[in-house]
Amino acid sequence: MNTGSVHEEPLFTAVSVSARQLFQLLKCINFAQKAQVRITEEGLRFTVEESRVIQGIAFLERALFTSYTFAPPGRIQDEDDDGDDTSVFQISLTALLETLSIFGFNESKDRWASRDSAYGGVTSSMGRGGLDAPFENRTLGMTSVCRLSYAAKGDPLCIVLKEAGVTTTCEMVTYEAEDQDEIPLQRDDLAQKIIMRSSWLHDAINELALTSPSRLTIAASPLAPYFTLSSKGPLGSATVEFSKDQQLLETFHVPKRTVNTYKYSLVKAASRAMAIASKVSIRGDVQGVLSLQFMIEVEEGRVSFIDFRFVPFLPEEAEEDDDEDGDEV
Q: How many other C-beta atoms are found inside a 10 Å radius of the C-beta of residue 27?
């Protein structure tokens, strides 16, 4: 504990009546050991990245908490500043998830994945990833009350969990924040924007896994075939095509044909978010940066968003990979 701190009141405190809700959201970005945490007036921002080619961002807005207090020293900040370096730190995401699930979490395999045929019949948006799915109390079981607090820079993140009269307190070591910029997405120069049911994207990514691919190619075009995902691996090649039917692709804005290739295993890292989200916004800019933004319905009719960013292979890298696959045949 940083006993020399002159900041008497904690920098941050928050209480949630559902530790499992926090667990489910943070589990979506659990593809690296550490997460960078930024505390702001609006909520908690968790960022995970790997080799600057994939980035996962989970934003736990203050509305998810029954109480939320952020008291930075001095309270004097620039308008565009989300907080100073006292409110940014790194933490072990693995340890945090273990702590949030300390009272147990009965998570049956693909419990919320009941669906009609792949890419088929449209059902209610609440039929998957909604209130009937991973965030409903009857699905989660008994609710754990969770209190988070962070006293000052360098102090541990304190987590107090209460359930059925049992209280557990954990103090998690925090680490110095690293320089970490967002993978840039040129929102004012998008090459594609497609919104669809997340379950269909999840199904498509899983189908392509049968070829044991190393790369995933995403193509979008104003003419048929409109939206395709394709892969090639040692077990063959596969392609999934989506029509432009509005019941399938809720939004489809593609001015001209685009083709970009990404590392399959990185896109697959977003599978958990795909599985529990109700919708996904698939955006790509003119540089090929891919954004998958998942809308996840949580308790009391609210929604949370998980955002993944991916950097594409350069065109010559994709061509080299195709040549190598051809040599192996």
A: 20
